[in-house]
UniProtKB/TrEMBL annotation:
Keywords: Isomerase, NAD, Oxidoreductase. Belongs to the NAD(P)-dependent epimerase/dehydratase family. The keyword Oxidoreductase applies. Its EC number is 5.1.3.2. Residues 5-162 form the NAD-dependent epimerase/dehydratase domain. This is UDP-glucose 4-epimerase. The keyword Transmembrane helix does not apply. GO terms for molecular function: oxidoreductase activity; UDP-glucose 4-epimerase activity. InterPro entries: Epimerase_deHydtase, NAD(P)-bd_dom_sf. It is an enzyme of class 5 (isomerase). Signal peptide: none annotated. It holds the Pfam family Epimerase.
């Protein structure tokens, strides 16, 4: 590729994607709303853009082959805050991609698009939308938007329903963990696949306790290598007894399924900020 765009480049997941993506293209354009992301990798440049501003996104995607869209508010928030970056921003990405003739959008969707399904159901990639938050609702919108733009305009997309891509700090993460190495492989496969049409795939490592069925997306060639079971002994020894009446423990969305709409889900989770810096 000549030009690949990464949104959300200043975020934690974006920080792990920048270097490997810079090796897949002549030019990686990393983007976010911060003024500067510091030192850049060879072949990378930074272009600030607000997802909610169409003109900025249209300029960002000009001349690009594909866009890896990881930019958004990455937590539950009031709908008025989610609307601009997560919903309008998704439309702006797809519309600008269509206008500039991009081949594909690779999108960071989430388990929260289907987060209210009971964990007793091992859901597949065809599970109907059942969002647990406004954040999850925005993911549903983007998945449907991707389907619409494929059906009506022939713009391919891959929707990566990430479960939990962070250090393993809870019993839930023993099943939902996506390692950074497997994240990179997942995004790379989504970029390099010859044909994707509009596809959904779960972003999860090869955990013994994985709670979803990814078999419907085998064509993408994603073969995760890591397994959260290596953390199980310590995590289970420190865990409180299970509560079958707690939605955070009985729904696929975990804590996001139990919080009140508009309230932060990350505030009740132990997510370690291990954002990668350029060496």
């Amino acid at each position: 590729m000549k030009k690949l765009v990464l949104t959300g480049a200043a975020g934690r997941l974006g920080s792990y994607l920048r270097e490997p993506l810079s090796k897949l293209t002549e030019e990686l354009v990393s983007s976010d709303i911060v003024e500067d992301i510091g030192k850049l990798y060879p072949g990378e440049r930074y272009q600030r853009a607000d997802l909610a501003e169409f003109a900025a996104i249209e300029a960002l995607l000009e001349g690009a082959d594909m866009v890896v869209h990881f930019g958004a508010i990455g937590d539950e928030a009031p709908f008025e805050q989610i609307l601009g970056p997560n919903i309008v921003g998704a439309y702006n990405i797809w519309e600008a991609a269509h206008r500039h003739g991009l081949r594909r959008v690779v999108y960071a969707s989430s388990i929260h698009a289907v987060g209210m399904h009971p964990k007793t159901e091992r859901i597949g990639i065809d599970a109907p939308h059942r969002p647990d938050t406004f954040y999850g609702l925005a993911k549903c919108f983007a998945e449907d938007l991707g389907r619409l733009y494929w059906d009506k305009r022939g713009l391919e997309s891959v929707h990566l329903r990430i479960l939990s891509c962070a250090q393993v700090t809870s019993t839930r993460a023993l099943g939902t963990w996506l390692s950074y190495e497997d994240l990179v492989q997942l995004v790379t496969r989504a970029i390099e696949a010859p044909v994707t049409e509009c596809s959904v795939i779960y972003g999860v490592s090869d955990n013994d306790r994985v709670p979803v069925d990814n078999s419907g997306a085998q064509f993408l060639g994603f073969r995760p290598k890591d397994n959260a079971e290596m953390f199980a002994t310590d995590i289970l020894a420190a865990a409180e007894p299970a509560d079958p009446g707690d939605l955070a423990q009985t729904r696929h969305g975990g804590p996001f399924a139990a919080i009140a709409l508009g309230n932060s889900g990350l505030a009740v989770m132990d997510v370690i900020d291990d954002t990668k810096s350029v060496e």
